[in-house]
Amino acid sequence: MTQPPTIPVHFILLPGFLLLDFAGPAEALRIANQHGGRFELHYCGPDAMPQSSLGMALDGVEALPGQLPPQGWVIIPGLAGAMAAQSAAAARQTVAWLQQLCPAGQPWPHGQLITICSAALLAGAAGLLDHRRCTTHHTLVEKLQQIAPNARVENDRVFVLDGEVASSAGITTGIDLALELIARQCGPQLALAVAREMVVWLRRDSATPQHSPFLAYRNHLHPAVHRVQDAISAEPARHWPLEAMASVACVSPRHLARLFRQHAGVSPLDYYQQIQLAQIEPLLTLRDWSLERIAEAGGFGSARDLRRVWQKQRTTPLRRPAETH
């Protein structure tokens, strides 16, 4: 089995960085490595020993790199507002560094740019959010709109992914975003293992199709329902009639339907269909795959069945790359 590629991840730590903005995603990536992920963590910044929001200084921080590998990720935690004065010079240096990596108006040339909380202001000042969907902490939405007037700022989102640029509202939502990115890079099962180890049962999202339901509906402690959810997530392309789910749970089909409603807040069929759609959604961008082939990969009987389920579960039309113009 081919191992996934190693992803160099550079955390950019400025004076006043919010400790949880940094530690939450970093721990998620560290735990992912214990389950087969291949994330290589680096800690960089304008200062060699930046002081965190809690007053502790982090030693051994490397200088901002002159260049990044093509597949590298950049994660910038937010900054404590009370320490803005101490952060000003470092913020200007970081904005200039971002502009050096990617001139304004150009596509981000690396694997992923990830901003957490107020770090979106830095990316916005560098021109990297122009014409992109993005978000930040709800108290900073207006400021981000002023700094980046060409950005499409969404004020009611926990996190937003727009191509190779991702942003989150900050604090604990950095963990939500990290889990989503882990799921996309390493698969939903690995992300689910990370979420379990971190005891993150509630999968928060903005109810938009781009966010993975593999970690949704898990904020409960019922073992039979979890067994079914695990089984479906492990084989989303398999045919899962209610009887087969009930066999996994060791209960009757009628009782399983009641358990799902009570503990997961969704029917077994709706859960299964949402997992199916999450499975095939990345395939929709493949121009050389027909919709019939994609439907087969997701366990649908036909492209017509796929369209029917999509219309039922999603609020936006099913579109292929050729249909976006």
For this entry, give a set of tags:
INH-QAR, Class_I_gatase-like, Rossmann fold, Arc Repressor Mutant, subunit A, 42% helix, 2 domains, 325 residues, 8 strands, Helix-turn-helix domain-containing protein, globular, DJ-1/PfpI, alpha/beta
Explain the overall architecture.
This protein is of the alpha/beta class. It folds into two domains: 7-188, Class I glutamine amidotransferase (GATase) domain (Rossmann fold), CATH 3.40.50.880; 217-325, Arc Repressor Mutant, subunit A (Orthogonal Bundle), CATH 1.10.10. It has helices at residues 19-34, 84-101, 119-125, 141-147, 173-186, 188-197, 223-234, 242-249, 253-264, 268-280, 291-297, 303-313, and strands at residues 7-12, 39-44, 73-76, 112-116, 133-134, 152-153, 159-162, 165-168. Strands 2-1-3-4-8-7 form a six-stranded mixed sheet. Helix 10 crosses helix 12 (303-313). The model is unreliable at 205-211 (pLDDT under 50).
CATH topology of the largest domain: Rossmann fold
Unreliable sequence segments: 205-211
The residue fraction in helices comes out at 40-55%
**How many β strands by DSSP?**
8
Structural class: alpha/beta
Number of helices: 12
Beta-strand residue fraction = 5-15%
The number of domains: 2
- Within CATH, the superfamily of the largest domain carries the name Class I glutamine amidotransferase (GATase) domain
Q: Note the run of SSEs as H and E.
A: EHEEHEHEHEEEHHHHHHHH
Mean pLDDT: 88
Q: Looking at the structure, what is the overall shape?
A: globular
CATH architecture of the largest domain: 3-Layer(aba) Sandwich
Provide the gyration radius in Å.
21 Å
Strand order of the largest sheet: 2-1-3-4-8-7
Distance between the termini: 38 Å
CATH class membership of the largest domain: Alpha Beta
Major pleated sheet: 6 strands, mixed
